Amino acid sequence: MSGISRRRFLAASVAGCTATALAGPRKALASGSFTGYPDSMGVLVDLTRCIGCRSCEAACNKEQQLPAPDRPFDDKSVFDETFHGGTQKRRTDENAYTVVNRYDTKDAGPVYRKVQCNHCSEPACLSSCFVNAYTKTPEGAVIYKGNVCVGCRTCMVACPFHVPAYSYSSAIDPVVKKCIFCYETRLKKGLPPACVDICPQEALTFGKRKDLIKIGQQRIQTNPGRYVNHLYGEKELGGTSWMYLSSVPFEEVGFDPTPGNEPIINHVKDFLGTVPMVLAIWPAMFTGFHLLAKKQADHDDHEHDAEKQHGDEGGEQ
Amino acid sequence: MSAKLILTTLTMVLTFITVGNLAQAADMPDQVSIDAMSVLFEGVEFDHAMHTELGEDCSACHHHATGTGTTDERCVSCHANSDEVASVGCRSCHASEPFSAEHINRKSEEIYKFHIDMPGLKAAYHWNCIGCHEEMDGPTGCQDCHARTPEGDAFYHSDASSASTSGKSGH
Ligand code: SF4
Ligand code: SF4
Predict the structure, then answer these.
(1) Which atom of ligand 1 is nearest to the CA of A264?
(2) Residue A10 has pLDDT above 60, yes or no
(3) Ligand 1 centroid to A118 CA: how many Å?
């Protein structure tokens, strides 16, 4: 590193310290104060109502203009498909933003569960994405900009529900694919998503998230014995826009029973607390990078020469 | 059939789709076309007359609306002796578009009142019909009641090969 850049980095870290000190109270405010947009929408999924007709899968396929399925959407044999030695049921992918699975439970017989993005209030996909491809809209949808996505797969790993998938149809430009709550075609116009619209059983209730919490609790109270006393997604991982009622313990129908109530972002907030500092030192850092790059370029030229005299340069770096 | 039952049947006001009130009792349909939402499936010609004979009382389907009393413990506290309502058709209470902005906003304003969780028309039919049909061994498959339209076939991709296992969709 040259003397110039070393001096600059020193200056930057002083600026960084100041920024960190300033950022203290802001960080405390930022973490934990966001309880979601007040009128954001959600869906209450009532597993006791679902009959596994897969109409929601068909509606999603049509609405999102996804490729034709391998089997018809009224083919129930897909419920027997398993992966990884029978341990995993069907998952969403770039061709299917929602899938319905059947669980053969001891006490309640077959229980069907629809899987899709849960549109977290504090989405791990969003906070993990370093190019800011994701947005949580005031309506509640977690959407993404395909043209910004660089296909790094970070969100795929970050999502606690294994939702984001990638389209590799263009090998050089993979792009994230997932349920967007029918944001463009429906939600932002005040319409329910296509799956909700088609469901013959109203297993999917669309409404304001805060009302759905009350409705969910009311269903538990007024139907003794029908539900386990838990509204999954009300608190889990900081809350999700899609929430669930079930007649059997949630782990019996493939839910992670202990995801905790902390949003994933809280696990990385110490890291995110450094963001204001990063912003403060950004200009200095880029100057540094620029100088480094310049030096690297010089060095590369140098290296081409060096290749001819192999070994002489070894100790310098 | 007992005289009482015949009398009850005759005086009942029962229409699923059209507006009904006491004055229209004579027009009570034996047959009801349930076709308001038929796009993917054809409408259902509902044999109302036959079902009124099967049903123990009107409240089995019409809750408290027909004024015949209700035994549902969630309803009796208010509706044990409710009068017949002006319009007993299903759609008078069950909205055909339960998730319209209008409905959702009203639900929000009335969240502490009763009936905030009333199913829409489509679900009301399916719960009532399928629930009873399961108990009584009636038809329960989708196409047992309404044939699928060509549009429905396309929607479900019924031309996709059922035998194909080559794809990995859904994984
Ligand atoms: S379920 Fe996964 S993809 Fe959907 S918002 Fe939450 S973290 Fe993101
Ligand atoms: S459309 Fe409704 S009942 Fe049918 S599988 Fe989907 S959620 Fe279940």
Answers:
(1) 7
(2) no
(3) 6
| CB of A177 sitting under 6 A from ligand 1 | no
Determine if ligand 1 sits within 6 Å of the CB of residue A116: no
Total domain count, chain B: 1
Give domain limits for chain A.
Answer: 1-25+277-290, 41-270
What is the C-alpha to C-alpha distance for residues A135 and A289, in angstroms, rounded to an integer? 29
pLDDT digits (tens, 9 = 90+) for B102-131: 999 988 888 878 888 999 999 999 999 998
Q: CA-CA distance, A78 to A278, in Å (whole number)? A: 49
Whether B81 and B66 have beta carbons less than 8 Å apart is answered as no
ipTM exceeding the 0.95 mark: no
Contact residues on chain B for A58, CB-CB shorter than 8 A: 155-157
* CA–CA separation, B151 and B158 (whole Å): 10
Average pLDDT over residues B51-72: 85
pTM above 0.80, yes or no: no
Better-scored residue on pLDDT, A86 or A276: A86
What are the φ and ψ backbone dihedral angles of A279, each rounded to 5 degrees?
Answer: -60, -35
**Which structural domain, as residue segments, surrounds residue B35?**
3-155
Ligand 2 pocket test target in A43, A47, A48, A54 with most atoms within 8 Å of CB: A54
User: In the CATH scheme, what architecture does the domain A41-270 have?
Assistant: 2-Layer Sandwich (3.30)
